Amino acid sequence: SCGTTQSTWGKLSARFLLFSHMASLNVVNKTAESVRKGAALMLNINAAKGLQEVLKTNLGPKGTLKMLVGGAGQVKLTKDGSVLLHEMQIQHPTASMIARAATAQDDITGDGTTSNVLFCGELLKQAERFLADGLHPRIITDGFELAKNETLRFLEEFQVKKQVDRELLVSVARTSLRTKVHPELADKLTEIVVDAVLTIRRDGQPIDLHMIEIMHMVHRMGTETSLVKGLVLDHGARHPDMPKKVENAYILTANVSLEYEKSEVNSAFFYSSADQREKLIDAERRFTDDKVKKLIEFKRKVCDGTDKTFVIINQKGVDPVSLDMLAKDGIIALRRAKRRNMERLTLACGGTAVNSVDDLSVSDLGFAGTVYEHTLGEEKYTFVEGVKNPFSCTILVRGPNEHTIAQIKDAIRDGLRAVKNTLDDQSIVPGAGAFELGAHANLVKFKSSVSGRAKLGVQAFADALLVVPKTLAENSGYDAQDTIIKLLEEHERTGSAIGLDIETGEPLQPEVDGIYDNYRVKKQFLHLAPVLAQQLLLVDEIMRAGKQMGGSKDGPQA
């Protein structure tokens, strides 16, 4: 009896121990991968540092290019951080998250992608030193938060509110473009992007960059890219007898079908003789011909007895019979124009887009000094130039090959955003690394007002900010430490904004040389990278255990 009782108690205690162990057991499928504590932290830090190393050499006007090769052998040369992060196939989840956050900055402000990746990587690299000494990540993130708020406050003081004129916009655009393409081409594009934005700008209305058409021609050199204060359409007239060039042209922007159309519902017509069939065909044709005749009559009414000519740009189709009728009257007709170009046409040439040929008046017409067709190989382009008071324009990108054109297009988009940001902000920030140096010096003073171990996080944030001027110095071929010490000493001595002269490696005053960054780019840069670094530092477990990882159907999965 006693032996039986002991045996029963032994089984019960064994079951109790088993259940107590089960309570603390994490149930995942057999193929799950999990890393915890220090290993998870190091995984995130190494991912950020790895991505930083990839993009580091791209920063600044002296940055190098990356060659991206696609699976089918396509080649793309670029130093634009946004393009690189979009095109690269990043497998590591942490690196992919940093890349997505950095490209979000580009979507919002049009610049600052590379700086964001470098700053985020450097924050984690600086934090790694303190983590190795046993400091808890939460202490560092608290310090980061204090430093971020102080730096945002410093940015408000550091920004320069200036009267935004063309000269200032040219300086901002040049600073942005020289980091994307070589200086000779950048200086050419600078004038183009500034004039393009000023053309479409209207007082009291937000700037819509979609009103700037970017058209390209594989033709001549990249430096022959030009601004057309009018519109360039990527097709020509569809009739050989239409004029190739007209001057003093009225432009009718229309969305009217000038072609024979079948009915939208299934229908059938029955006739008992050949005469009835002919009458039916004539009636169908007459419906379209009447519209064309009204247009021809309207053209004669406004143009006869003057030196004016007539151009119709139609969003819908124009059939061969209608084209022939229009050509006989000396009218240029373009069909199937893009809907976006219909908006641009009325903004560039004036007039209104019409949906009917009834009750046309002279106020519906736009005007252009010259309309001509340009043929390049098998491609045809129609130029609408010499317009009065345009609020839409075209940047015509020329280049000897697709690589050059793609590079110029990416640079133009960033340049346009830089000019727009300056007009929206009505302020700028001295560039060439001046803001980062000033913010570092400010945080070193601020650190003394922070109590406790959080000041270590403030110190790490201050040191991380120096990654931008350090990288600029390295990419320009100078010693990073020597250059930073010179710049900090000069900043302390003068108390003014000091940046790096990439040509000499010496300190310079960015405002004297016209080197400016966008205020909103810096603000977004300070909001994005520190928050991302804080989130990554507070990750203490990475688990990869999806349902599709090959576990059995009946077994437990997480």
Account of the protein in words:
By secondary structure, the chain is of the alpha+beta class. It has 18 helices and 17 strands. The strands form six sheets. Strands 6-11-10-7-8-9 form a six-stranded mixed beta sheet. It has a three-stranded mixed beta sheet with strand order 4-12-5. Helix 10 (320-328) links the parallel strand 8 (309-314) and strand 9 (332-334). The protein is elongated, with a radius of gyration of 33 Å. The relative contact order is 0.18.
Would you summarize the structure shown here?
With 558 residues, the chain is an alpha+beta fold. It is built from 18 helices and 17 strands.
Arithmetic mean pLDDT: 79
Regarding quaternary structure, what we see is single chain
Which segments are poorly predicted (pLDDT under 50) over 5 or more consecutive residues?
14-25
Structure annotation, total helices: 18
Q: Share of helix among residues?
A: 40-55%
Tell me the strand percentage band.
5-15%
What is the first-to-last residue Cα distance?
A: 46 Å
Radius of gyration: 33 Å
What is the 3D shape?
A: elongated
Counting DSSP E segments of at least 2 residues, the number of strands comes to 17
Helix/strand structural class: alpha+beta
Strand order, biggest sheet?
A: 6-11-10-7-8-9
Largest sheet: 6 strands, mixed
Features:
558 residues; alpha+beta; 6-stranded mixed sheet; 3-stranded mixed sheet; 18 helices; elongated
What does the secondary structure layout of this molecule look like, with pairings?
Elements: H1 2-23, E1 33-36, H2 37-56, E2 66-69, E3 75-78, H3 81-87, H4 93-109, H5 113-132, H6 137-158, H7 166-177, H8 183-200, E4 212-218, E5 226-228, E6 231-233, E7 245-254, H9 274-303, E8 309-314, H10 320-328, E9 332-334, H11 339-349, E10 366-376, E11 379-385, E12 393-399, H12 402-425, E13 428-430, H13 434-447, H14 454-465, H15 467-475, H16 480-494, E14 499-500, E15 507-508, H17 510-513, E16 516-518, H18 519-537, E17 541-544
Parallel strand pairs: 4-12, 7-8, 8-9
Antiparallel strand pairs: 1-17, 2-3, 5-12, 6-11, 7-10, 10-11, 13-16, 14-15
Helix pairs in contact: 2-4, 2-5, 3-4, 4-5, 4-18, 5-14, 5-18, 6-13, 6-14, 6-18, 7-8, 7-12, 8-12, 13-14, 15-16
